[in-house]
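Could you join me in thinking about how sequence relates to backbone shape in a protein? We need material for that, and I hope you will provide a protein of your own picking. Label the sequence line and the structure token line clearly, so we can match residues to local backbone shapes. Would you write everything just below, so we can both look at the same thing?
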Amino acid sequence: MLFRSERIILGLPDLNHGIPDKLHLFYSSFSSNIITMSLESAELAKLSINFFLAADVTVTNILASLSETTGASWSDIRLALQSDQRIGRFRYLHPGLGISGGNLPRDIASLETLMFSQSIPSTSFFTAIRQLSNFSKSWPFEVFIRYGLRSDIHESILIIGYGYKAGSDSIYGSPSIQLIDSLLDIDSMHKNIYIYDETSHVNSFQHPTVRNVRSDETGIFSEISTVFYMYHSEKNFAYFQRISKYLVPGTLIIDACGKLKSIFVDRVDLQYISRGEGF
């Protein structure tokens, strides 16, 4: 299946000569929207796009956290923001777990280095982005400590989502890795941790006691006390919708992206905590 892009930014050494025919034909197979500019502008454009995305993610997450502590509902606030044309419905307005993966953190670091070399004061801004990202990544574990930590050391936990985002097998910077490490720190001997992920598989060297579960595996749910829904995808949502009927009353659901609320109309006996909603 041919990958399609909404646009391609192409840096050229000499704009007066345009894009060579063969190169234009190649890139046209991926997108009809080819934007040409100088090499310097193309590189800074890439960094700028990822910086805007990182800023969007950061602002959304910190305002979602504020909603939780003030009793507000971020899902209501998001609708108001989307109705403002200056913000719009395509912005990153769904809360998540910080900035993960390789591209965004790397480009943020590159832009910070570039600004420093040009004597542009920005250190505190970049530091704030990293601090707020780490704060967001710790959200699932902090909620678990507050609401889900039980005296029964044999409780089992299900984490839906292992990679750093849906559809990726990369676990680089994954919030789930940080969550697992934190859970094992408080109980490395007795806590059973299961992973469901449509793409990624548990790193048996890093987490030898953690195992993947199949989508059709139902025997574990009588022992599950907490479910972490780490990121949203159609497959993750369908999986949770399917297993929700097997969860025992009182099971704690920690929804890191605020996508599962509609399911709990039928399962009011489950304890549900969502990112961006007052507890």
In short: The chain has eight helices and eight strands.
